[in-house]
Every structure is written in C-alpha cells, then in structure tokens.
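User: quick one, fold this
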Amino acid sequence: MIATTALVAVLTLCCSLYYLFTKTFNYWNIRNVANPKPVPLFGNLLDSALRRKNIGDVFKEIYDQFPDEKVVGVYRMTTPALLLRDLDVVKDVLIKDFDNFSDRGFSFSKNGLGNNLFHAESDRWRILRSKFNPLFTSGKLKNMMYLLEERGDKLLEYIQNMERSEQDLLPIFKGYTMATISACAFGLDVDTISDETNVFKTMDDIILSPSFLDELDMMYPTIIKTLKLNPLPQAVTDFFMQVVTTVIAQRNGVPSNRQDFMDFLLTMREEHVISWRKNDGLDNSLTLELTDDIIAAQALAFFTAGYETSATTMSLAVYELARNPEVQREVIAEVDAVLARHGGRLGAEAMSELELMERVLSETLRLYPVVEPLQRRALCDYKIPGTDVTVKKDQMVIVSTKGIHRDPKHYPDPDRFDPGRFTVENSKDRHTCAHMPFGNGPRYCIGMRFAKYQSKVCLAKFFSKFRVEPTAATPANISFKPRRVVMAPREEVLVNILPR
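Assistant:
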C-alpha cells in the first residue's frame, strides 16, 4: 500500500512538473506562427542552457531554419518570445517604434551596479544616455588618442620581446584593451599587457561568464529584479567599487585635467542629481541621484563593453588577414602611407584615412558579431507591421545579428571574408539593419566610436611592424564558447607573428 501511494505521488509530481514546464508550448501554434519544436523546461534553448553552445549560435540556427518567415516564435526556456527575421520589421522595432522597445529586458536592480547604462530600464537609461552622449564626441575622443597610442607602443614592445611563433591573438589584444580602458576610463596606468597577474585580468572570466540566473529569469521574467538578486558575483561589485573609490580619492572628489571618463563622471557628480526632460508636452522630467554606486555601475559598463569585444574583433580581424594575404598586403600598404603622411602619429585625421582598415573591421564584425543576440522588451502590446502577429506587453523580441549578417539574401557567399562589401559603392543601397554589430536605433552601443578608434590604433601599430601568416594549428573555422556572455572564440586563435 505504501509503495503504491509513493508511486502515485511520484507519477503525480512528474505529471505536474511536465505540465508546468510545457503548458506554454502551444502559444505560437495557436497564433499560427512558425516555431521550432520546444523541449520541456528548456524550450528552444537546451544547448545554451546546458552550456553546449553559445546562445548566439542557437538563435542563428533557429533563424536559418525558417528562411521564408518574417518572424519566428521561440521559447526562452518556458517563456514565449519572438525572433525577428525581416529587416523592415527589425527597423520598425529598433528604430521607428523604439519608444515601445526602449528596454533591453536585462535589468536586475535599481541599486548598485544594476544601474549601468547597458542594463538600466528605459527611464533611467534615458537619463544616463542624455548625460553620456557628450563623452563620445570626436573632440572628447581626440583627447584620449595619446593614451591609445602609448598603450599601442607598449604592446609593440611586448610583442617584439616575446616568442612570436604560433601565438594566440586574443590574450595579446586583451592586454592592450584592458590597458587602454584602464587609462581612458579610470586614469590608471596599469600593466595588463605583460603582467599576467594584474588585478584587472582577474576580472576577465568572472564578469563575462553567465550564471544560471539568466535561465531562471527567462522562465520567470523579472524574478531577478523582484527578489533583488544580483547576477554579478560579489567580487565584481567589490572590485569596481574599490576602483572608483580609489580614483575619486586620488582626485579629491573633483575633476582633474585628464578629461577622461572619470573626470566626466566627477563633473556630473558635482550636480548630485541628474535629470532628463520628457518630450511629452507635459513638462515632466526624470531624475536620478548620482551616487558613487551609480558611478561604479558606469565604470563596469565601460570596462566590460570595451575590453573583450574589441580584443575579440581585433584577433579575428588579424586571423582573417592571415588567411587572406593579399588583403593583408593592402592593409600594410595603407598603414605605411597614412603613417608617412602624419609623421608616424595616429591622430583623429589619420583614423579617417584608414579606410581599408575600417572595411576590414566592418567585415570582421559582419562575420563575427560579438554581442549576440539583440533583445528588447515590449512596453505595451504591439502588432508587427505586415503580419497578424501581436507582441504582448513585457514579451521579448529577439534579433539574431549573426543570422542576418550571414544570410545570403543580404550578403552573397556570406561565409567568405570580403572587405569590399563595405566600399561606399557596395554599401549605399544596403538596408540600414543589414549590418548591426553595435545594435541599431537610439539604444545602439554608445561606445562604438571609441571601440573603432581603439581597434584601428592597435592594428595600425601592429601592422606597422609585423605581418601574420597561418600555421598548421590555425583553426579552419571559429567556434564560440558556450559559457560566455559575448561571442568569444572557443579555440586559440593561433597565427605566426613575423617581423616585417
């Protein structure tokens, strides 16, 4: 009798769990929206939830399964969401109707590091974005050029003194990007290029390794915010609070003459409260107290967005140039010519003349978009133009940048590396949403211009002294780490670095 009761209890529990983990899985079928078959509990994210594939690759595979659909229904664990494939629909969501999709849906706290420019919810994001836009103007970036050049020269010295055969490019360029971010953001001269034990390097795997709180939030949207959970390890919070506290103390709490990121924040800090006026005809405004927590949150966003993304892009650009020696020769010729015209210096004017380098980076980001996928949360019900599909309030819409970038409808022979795709002539008629490595619309990556300057300075310095060639160990294709928030190469990006 006891065994029978126990068996019934177990079967009841299993049936209840099965129902709980599958009860939403008719959502898109009922609405006649094409969708891949979901798996109980995991929906369409089994491989990413089990850390077998990067989530960007998972959404790219779903994108490829439905070549004739404008939108595709998906299940983020047990929660219905919508994958957008049609570029006009993507434009409507990211640009035209942005006010209904201004929230990324990543928010986890209104206190501490959750109030950073990347994670902040719509209203707080608008306040922060309005204040941070001036930091990334051409004039501000010109003031940082010498810092980029100095770190570029230190990188050359490091490469000249190391064993250069079969080197993994990613850690080399990470050392440079960490050094430039530390200098430009915090005014700190730290050696992340040659010192493997530097404290900034200890943050690398900690910051960008996903926790299973991501999957929990997909199953129960807003649970992280409701329970005030922090997906960032305490070590990350402590680290950035300590960095900001140290820099503020060094500058006596007031701006210095460095005109860097921290000076900009300290200038705002003197206002105590920052605000943004709503354009609603009601003379309403939003306010935000600028505490040291808020400053640390922006430091986290600047550091995280600026070091690995740029380092990955540069390493993959050099990898592709190693496999395309003719393009590499043209890049080297351009670098030599630009440096000769500018006396060996790489100022803002020289940056604008590195046109082929710009195309190489654009093509690299087409093949390997680093932040993937894009996502937005609907702030109210929204009917997808040209369809009968309605996105409900608080539902997520997903854009597979990699899917779009490798779609043969937009880029013939899409897996081939061809910087010529980005000449003025070849780009002029391209859809504005066919190339989105930095996102699109008002919530695109605010640090885009800094990332380009950072990368072009480093690569110009690199190719002024070195060339690269593949080795027997150079991967034929690049796959990506499952346990990484951004798209990071799974294997070492090995090439030979040779003096010119």
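User: anything notable?
Assistant: The longest helix spans residues 292-323.
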